[in-house]
Amino acid sequence: MKLLNQSVKHLSISLLLIIGVWGTVLFFNIVDEVKENVDEGLENYKRQIVFRAHQDTAVLKQMNLNENFYSIQEIGKGEYFDTVNIFTDTMIRVQDADDVAPRLAPVRMLKTAFEDGGKKYRLKIINPMIENEDLIERLFENMIWLYISLIFAIVLINNIVLRRVWRPFYNLLAQMKAYRLGKGESLPEVKTKTKEFIDLQKAIDTLLRHNIRIYEQQKSFIGNAAHELQTPLAIVINKLELLIEKGELSEDQAHSIVKTMQIIERLTRLNKSLLLLSKIENRQFIQEQEVDFNTLIAEEIESLQDVADFKKIKISVVENKRFTKTINFSLAHILVSNLLRNALFHNIEKGNVYISIQKNKLTISNTGIKKPLDRDHIFKSFYKSSSKSENTGLGLAIAKAIADIYGISINYYFRNEHHHFEIKI
Amino acid sequence: MKILVVEDEKDLSELIVQSLSKEKYVVETACDFHAAMEKIGSYQYDCILLDIGLPGGDGLEVLKSLREEGKSENIIIISAKDSIEDKITGLNLGADDYLTKPFHIAELNARVKALLRRKKLESRQNLEFGNISMDIDDRQVFIHNEKVDLNRKEFDILNYFLFNKNRLVSKMSLAEHVWGDNIDQADNFDFVYYQIKNLRKKLKEVDAGIEIESVYGTGYRVREQ
After folding, report:
1. CA distance B176 to chain A (A)
2. pTM
């Protein structure tokens, strides 16, 4: 949920509560105020009635409330008499001009008593009251409108004002999303005077600078490691080459030196592969382009043809569609060539390699040992199915690392005595 | 022909000097940034082998200052960094070639010779050995003035051998040069032997006057018969 909507959500819930409580309180206040007013009016009436009754005894004949808004009844001797004013809410039947039948309507009633000419009278005066239902209805209606207009105003203000206030934040966010370590971009920056956003920007700056430094360190570490290892390796290989070139060696000595050279060459390959793997995992291959795998595979087969011919392996390709993907070109090349070499080098004499290219799927299958390989470990570093010492055991791990960073799935299965490697996008 | 080797690793520098001296080049060395700048400032070289990871300064700075002064020495960068980006940076700064460590002596030889030929010998001169005359630009081989048909790889192999006359060419080095970097997982380069066998046969048929001899089972050497 967006920040803007989030605040609207919370505000609308609390406003509903506030308005509800406020409305209830308002209702009781109004009712109280009205009663107070009515009661005062009733007391006034009482004084007038008592005064008129004293002058005009006809007034005392008003026995019930049907014709007038007051009634007077004589109290017999010995009956309870008290001149205290008692106000009560009650209902009486009334029929207004617009009513078809009499209906009950709320009234305020003053019950009291007075003495006139030695006789005691009970006096009841009524005054029509606001009907509660009507009041509640009206109040409720008004509150709903208030609520709606408040929400409407809030949404409007949120969208106009808050959006403007938060603009630096969204701007910063967009820049952060687009930021990639190692691409040498400038740090995210927005122009703002809001303290929080300035703080946020500072925090991001610090964090990014820290990350950039680590990234640079790591990168130069890898570069240095390469340098430090490759140079001694170069020295050893070249020394041995010059030694052999000189001749003057016995068969035995030459044999030992050749063996040593082979081991060093293996070491060189291993070192190169490890560096490559760590570079891939550090995502140091940045530039991407649309790569056509059909062409790539054709080129790769061409360059490996001699190796295949030597082992009398037949390579066949079935192309149904073009398989394309936006990927770093070197990595695409390494991915294809590692899978293809894997299919060749773990093959048997006069074996087969089948390559099937579909729109989103590329399968390379080959003959080889006649039992399935360990699916769980085959893509792990230094996994070796055979004791072929020339292998670094990193070829498939590198392929997997490449697939992983581009979200390509890579799978192995054994079917019809063929090892299948399948990549899917 | 005068060559300057700028390399901080003494052992490697020595080996390069040893190897290049065999080809009758005059070779001098510089082992750090300042020595390199000094030598380049005072002398003229036909080719400079430049390690870019130097003590005292970045090797690329040497390259920059050379190009800024308008000097046109041939430069081959030798570096342990093998990423395409590094190569492109080096080549953009005006290097003529980029060689990744570790390299084979034969590869270095071939690169130096190819570069010197390309840059210095404006008049086209064929590479001659035995009865062979090789036109590198047109990728053609003549024996007794008759054109010999070689496929792409056979030509590359022969070319590599002719750049390394009388020198050891290891199978690994040959495989890398002809089949590319990616061949490095090959079982044991038996397929190289297979190609050499074919080439030997072809050369013998046309009386090429050269012999590709095996050296201790690890490589080959080309000699005049």
Report:
1. 11
2. 0.60
Choose the final residue of a domain: B57, B85, B120: B120
Q: Which residue in B11, B104, B172 is closest to A235 by CB distance?
A: B11
Q: In whole angstroms, give the CA distance from residue A352 to residue A372.
A: 16
Q: Which of B80, B106, B172 lies nearest to residue A227, judging by beta carbons?
A: B80
pLDDT in tens, B32-70: 888 888 888 888 888 899 988 788 778 888 888 888 887
Q: How many CB pairs under 8 A join A and B?
A: 127
Write the pLDDT tens digit of every residue in B93-104: 888 899 888 888
Would you say B184 and B176 are in contact if contact means Cβ atoms under 8 Å apart?
A: yes
What's the alpha-carbon Rg for chain B, to the nearest Å? Answer: 18
CATH architecture of A289-424: 2-Layer Sandwich (3.30)
pLDDT at position A273? 81
Question: Per the CB < 8 Å rule, is B102 touching A258?
Answer: no
Domain boundary among B72, B99, B120: B120
Please list the residues that pair with B143 across neighbouring strands. B132, B146
The closest CB to that of A345, out of B79, B82, B185, belongs to: B185
With beta carbons under 8 A apart, name residues in chain B contacting A345: 185-187
